[in-house]
């Protein structure tokens, strides 16, 4: 007899295509649980084969994050599926040790994030947000008081040129920008194929009029942009991040902006999200701020939800998921998959 496969998620907003796709699939049961800590939710999560998890740490209470304590209570769990490109709420190493696959939806909102990054560059360089605020609250200033700079023809430095960085490079061509990229995971030939000139980080910082982060947060990138890195940037350059909080040092950035070394910043991500209302960066007119919304467009959220649902269905059919984060899990996972679902899963190719 075929095993009914249980997928669970918590009750944060997800594009309806996710629930609709899974609910229409044969042999799949989808349950939406309350985030309020309860024994009932834990019982259903303990029975689940797939856990669709929010990657947003500000959205998901600590008891429901996929860490070793939670995994120890989930003997049937075969896959944790992140609802985004990141997986900040998932302990990947703990999942691997437990024989649980981790998948994400990388690339699903790349177009949305890339558009937003370009929008931040324009907003900071042309002082659009500052102009909006002043027009709503003050009179007695001139248009020249809000004079900014074009981004056309400038040099753009991308720290990371994955799905989103590549999309940004493509959009930058419309502004005839020279695009540099630093990505230690890619060869110079691959970086060139993605639309940028390869550069090491010091050269990129020293030559770029705009530096934009598009790398993940991990041990190699935490505090990558610190006081020393800001000092290496061109005087009058602009700093943009739509990546993750923690990659850039916020207080050091505030100092680089306050002393005039940097001309402005566009920040969609923060060490603590949302940042406190009295955060020192929010007091600066030359900072354009967002609440980690670069990927939050109707199209981006729909793409991510559809990709997640399709990948879960493929996984539960025994196929190798295309966006597997922890390929080392596969030998152990194959044995657990066969034992729990009574069917074979494909080899990880």
From TrEMBL:
Residues 118-294 form the D-isomer specific 2-hydroxyacid dehydrogenase NAD-binding domain. Keywords: NAD, Oxidoreductase. The keyword NAD applies. Residues 65-326 form the D-isomer specific 2-hydroxyacid dehydrogenase catalytic domain. The keyword NAD applies. Its EC number is 1.1.1.-. One of its GO terms (molecular function) is oxidoreductase activity. Belongs to the D-isomer specific 2-hydroxyacid dehydrogenase family. This is Hydroxyacid dehydrogenase. It comes from Candidimonas humi.
């Amino acid at each position: 007899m075929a095993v009914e496969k249980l997928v669970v998620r918590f009750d944060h907003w997800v594009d309806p295509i996710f629930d609709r796709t899974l609910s229409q699939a044969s042999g799949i049961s989808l349950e939406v649980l309350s985030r309020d800590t309860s024994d009932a939710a834990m019982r259903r999560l303990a029975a689940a084969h797939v856990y669709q998890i929010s990657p947003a740490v500000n959205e998901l209470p600590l008891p429901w994050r996929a860490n070793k304590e939670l995994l120890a209570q989930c003997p049937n769990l075969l896959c944790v599926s992140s609802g985004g490109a990141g997986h900040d709420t998932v302990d990947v190493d703990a999942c691997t040790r437990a024989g649980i696959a981790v998948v994400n939806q990388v690339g699903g909102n790349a177009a949305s994030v890339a558009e937003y990054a370009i929008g931040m560059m324009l907003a900071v360089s042309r002082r659009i947000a500052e102009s909006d605020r002043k027009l709503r609250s003050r009179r007695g200033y001139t248009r020249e008081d809000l004079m900014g700079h074009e981004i056309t023809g400038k040099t753009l430095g991308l720290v990371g040129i994955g799905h989103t960085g590549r999309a940004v490079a493509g959009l930058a061509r419309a502004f005839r920008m020279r695009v540099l990229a630093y990505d230690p995971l890619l060869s110079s030939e691959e970086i060139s194929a993605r639309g940028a000139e390869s550069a090491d980080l010091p050269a990129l910082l020293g030559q770029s009029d705009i530096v934009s982060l598009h790398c993940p947060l991990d041990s190699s990138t935490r505090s990558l942009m610190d006081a020393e890195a800001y000092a290496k940037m061109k005087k009058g350059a602009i700093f943009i991040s739509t990546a993750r909080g923690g990659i850039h040092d916020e207080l050091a950035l505030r100092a680089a902006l306050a002393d005039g070394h940097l001309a402005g910043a566009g920040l969609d991500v923060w060490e603590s999200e949302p940042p406190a209302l009295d955060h020192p960066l929010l007091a600066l007119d030359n900072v354009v701020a967002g609440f980690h919304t670069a990927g939050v467009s109707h199209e981006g959220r729909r793409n991510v939800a559809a990709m997640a649902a399709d990948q879960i269905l493929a996984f539960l059919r025994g196929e190798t998921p295309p966006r597997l984060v922890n390929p080392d899990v596969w030998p152990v996972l194959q044995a657990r998959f066969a034992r729990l679902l009574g069917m074979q899963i494909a080899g990880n190719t």
